[in-house]
Write a structure and sequence with these properties.
Layout lengths: L8 E5 L17 E4 L12 H9 L8 E6 L1 H12 L3 E6 L10 H9 L9 H4 L1 H8 L5 H12 L2 H12 L10 E5 L14 E3 L6 H4 L1 H14 L9
Parallel strand pairs: 1-2, 1-3, 3-4, 4-5, 5-6
Helix pairs in contact: 1-2
């Protein structure tokens, strides 16, 4: 049985093109490590192979929480296939490929991602601000900086990987969504934690509430594995 007195361990995986800055407002009780994105080995590197390389940073025998934001949640679920003691919390993400919202299913079906440049939001940051639900001021400044630093080759790979994701047999997770998330809006299926007013950027804008939930999860499941209905 896991040691109930052990300090919780969190591995944080940011969203597509983001980095540790989006977690800067979180206050987690335990040991925290951000898993930085690795460059894909090639444009068609399979997602499971990529996740295996990311998983090398997570000890096989360590009980921990993998906290994935947006596309980071997809990678967290794939890492969890290889780390049986890891528990997964999704922030502004989806638990399986069938949960893609209608807009993204349309993009996938039409192949629009192939002819829209991945850096398009760099040119129209205010559109991105609305879509991601980013507030003016400090949040928007950070958002624009993240957009400027996005690497097109990685972005293309990540979008392709999300649309090709084979989530069959993926393990359980706890989903944390915002009521105003335009990218992954709450659907008809059950969401364990729904943050009122939260957007796709809520790991930063609603960091206090996200932190409270993650700390509570770590405390609740200190000795027993989670049972997700």
């Amino acid at each position: 049985m896991p040691d109930a007195t052990a300090e919780p361990r969190f591995y944080l995986i940011p969203g597509l093109g983001a980095d540790e800055r989006i977690f800067s407002r979180l206050t987690l009780r335990g040991r925290v490590r951000v898993l930085p994105w690795l460059p894909p080995l090639d444009p068609d590197e399979p997602l499971p192979a990529y996740a295996a390389r990311m998983a090398e940073q997570v000890p096989l025998d360590e009980r921990c929480w993998l906290v994935g934001v947006s596309f980071g949640g997809t990678v967290a679920l794939e890492i969890a296939r290889l780390r049986p003691l890891a528990l997964v919390a999704l922030v502004s993400s989806i638990p399986e490929a069938g949960a893609l919202p209608p807009l993204l299913r349309f993009v996938r079906a039409t192949g629009a991602q192939h002819w829209v440049p991945p850096q398009v939001l760099k040119w129209f940051p205010r559109v991105g601000q609305w879509y991601f639900g980013v507030n003016d001021g400090e949040e928007y400044a950070l958002f624009k900086q993240i957009l400027r630093e996005q690497e097109p080759r990685y972005t293309r790979w990540a979008i392709r990987s999300l649309f090709r994701w084979d989530s069959r047999g993926v393990g359980p997770c706890v989903q944390i969504l915002g009521t105003r998330d335009r990218i992954f809006p709450p659907g008809p299926s059950k969401v364990e934690y729904l943050i009122e007013g939260g957007t796709h950027f809520m790991v930063y804008s609603h960091a206090a509430e996200v932190s409270r939930i993650l700390n509570q999860l770590a405390a609740d499941f200190a000795t027993e594995p989670p049972v997700v209905p």
